[in-house]
Amino acid sequence: MINVFLILITFILVVSFHSYRRFILKLTSKKFYINKLKNTKLKWFPQIHEVYIGIILAIISYIFSFEILFNISLGIAIADLFYHFVILWVITGHHHFYFRFKNPRF
């Protein structure tokens, strides 16, 4: 059963955390991944979005009928999409939804 209240609470927490991390602490995943890639021989690395984790958890929790985790994972997935395609797009002019990061060494 879908619990809109739990999805909304999860949504608000995730979006607040991402906004705080991005706009107050000035931390971006692009900087993080590029710094990590510099020390490797990899030419690129996939960016792991919360929407992927949320969908995988939603499928698993749906199969095993774990309703609380299902609602939380839906909130995570929706929040990540909202953050990228509404908040970031409005504030920065770009969605910053990358599928992979290239290694600057190559």
Could you describe the 3D structure shown?
- The chain has one domain.
- Helices cover 66% and strands 6% of the residues.
- The protein contains four helices and two strands.
- Helix 1 runs parallel beside helix 4 and helix 3 runs antiparallel to helix 4.
- The model has no long low-confidence stretch (mean pLDDT 91).
Topology:
Elements: H1 4-24, H2 29-37, E1 44-46, H3 50-63, H4 67-92, E2 100-102
Antiparallel strand pairs: 1-2
User: Total strand count, please?
Assistant: 2
Shape: globular
How helix-rich are the residues, as a percent range? 55-70%
Total domain modules = 1
Radius of gyration: 16 Å
- Helices, by number, come to 4
Structural class: mainly alpha
Chain-averaged pLDDT: 91
Please give the alpha-carbon distance between the first and last residues: 49 Å
What is the H/E string? HHEHHE
Condensed summary:
The protein is mainly alpha-helical. Helices cover 66% and strands 6% of the residues. It has helices spanning 4-24, 29-37, 50-63, 67-92, and strands spanning 44-46, 100-102.
